[in-house]
Every structure is written in structure tokens, then in C-alpha cells.
Specification:
Mean pLDDT: 89
Strand content: under 5%
Number of helices: 2
Helix content: over 70%
Radius of gyration: 51 Å
Largest sheet: none
Order of helices and strands: HH
Distance between the termini: 137 Å
């Protein structure tokens, strides 16, 4: 909003209407010029700021991209380690179960097999005596 310069009545009386109006017009022209220059300077500064901000945001985006990639690789590596540990523990646990199962089967079937073999020998012996 432009501000129009006004001068006192005494100034008009001393220098006259024409000179005073010319001076007022000159002040207003200078004011308009300074305003335009200030507006242009502000726009230039804002463009520089905007460009710098864009650069810094791009740098920040790159840094975060690298950090997310590193974090992703670290998580993948740790998951692979945990998977290996879990598989080893499961294999070890199943190995113990298998050992106990074989021991139980042998404990159950060995006396049964001996009883069957003994019965068969007894039947054969009886048959041979006749």
C-alpha cells in the first residue's frame, strides 16, 4: 500500500505549488522505486533460500536413504543369524528326541522280541519232542 508524501502548508507557501508538487511526486517515485527494489530483493532472497532448502532436503533425503539401507541390511543380517541359531537349536532338540525315541523303542521291542524268539524256540522244541 503506497504512502503518499504530504508537506506542510508553510512549505507550499515558501516554495510554491509547482515546486512542492514536483518534490512530492519525486518522493513518491523514490518510494515506489525503493518498494519495487525491496520486493525484487525479497523475491531473489526467497528464491535463493528455496534453492538452498531444496539442496539441503535432497542431502537429508540421501543421508536417510543410506541410513535406512544400512538398518535394513543390519536387520536382515540379524534375522539370518537368529534363523541359523533357531535351526541349530531345533536340530539339537530333535536329535535328543530321536535318541530318546530310539532308546524307548529298543527298551520296548527288545524284551518283546526276546519273548517271541523264546516262545518260538519253545514251540519248536515241543514240536521236535513229539
Amino acid at each position: 500500500m503506497p504512502v503518499t508524501a504530504k508537506l506542510s502548508k508553510k512549505f507550499y507557501e515558501t516554495f510554491g505549488e509547482d515546486v512542492t508538487n514536483e518534490l512530492v511526486n519525486w518522493f513518491n517515485a523514490v518510494d515506489a522505486t525503493y518498494r519495487a527494489d525491496l520486493r525484487e530483493l525479497n523475491e531473489t532472497n526467497f528464491q535463493r533460500f528455496d534453492a538452498k532448502l531444496g539442496e539441503r532436503l535432497a542431502e537429508l533425503d540421501g543421508k536417510w536413504g543410506v541410513r535406512w539401507t544400512e538398518l535394513d541390511a543390519k536387520v536382515e543380517r540379524r534375522l539370518a543369524e537368529l534363523k541359523g541359531e533357531l535351526q541349530a537349536q531345533i536340530a539339537q532338540g530333535l536329535g535328543g528326541v530321536e535318541t530318546r525315541l530310539v532308546r524307548w523303542l529298543f527298551t520296548f521291542w527288545a524284551p518283546t522280541a526276546l519273548a517271541i524268539v523264546g516262545t518260538a524256540i519253545g514251540v519248536v522244541a515241543l514240536l521236535l519232542r513229539r
